[in-house]
Amino acid sequence: MTARGLPALTSEIVSCRACPRLVTWREEVAREKRAAYRDEDYWGRPVPGFGDPHARLLLVGLAPAAHGGNRTGRVFTGDRSGDFLFASLHRTGFANRAESVRAGDGLALVDAYIAAAVRCAPPANKPTPQERDACLPFLVRELELLAAVRVIVALGAFGYEAAWTVLGRADLKGVERPARRPRFGHGVEVACGTVTIVGTFHPSQQNTFTGRLKPDMLDAVFERARHLISASTSPAA
Fold first, then answer.
1. pTM above 0.90, yes or no
2. Which of 145, 152, 199 is nearest to 172 (CA)?
3. CATH code at 42?
């Protein structure tokens, strides 16, 4: 089901025009372009998830960057946040290379899949609650198709809230959320039956340039995710 379902869902995501403000913004950015990329063809559409369809690790971010995913067509690709993120995924064995430059560059995720709560680049990186709610069903369906997922790494508070919400909506065997959502923080863990949410500060420049999120901190989150995955799939688990 996953092999057939994910490509169909990807096609549906890419063709979505449900949120007028986001459609206008993503297409305007794609037309006007940033000077450094003026010779490139921007993607300018919703950005689908990317990675291993049999992944046990799911990463959930906020939304594509205007000149990152909205330019390249691949989530966390072509911007500084992606540079920081994929370098960590490579160091911890979840990616075959440390750089994510463009679709078709040879990057492959290993036992990992990356998605976003909102699939279009929003103005000022701030989707409205209505835009968030309109897009979340895509993530719910994605999670249902990624049947092997055992850990969700939430990139930032927005991703954390999205992960919590979709776990409550998705039809997943063995998933049971606690009565209350714990407060977000770097390294927070929420055991939800067969799936565990792990939070990390978002790898945005605001966090990485100031040292709020350092490479070893993000590496530790992914190492913890690997430990949780191993524990959940061991014979004693």
1. yes
2. 145
3. 3.40.470.10
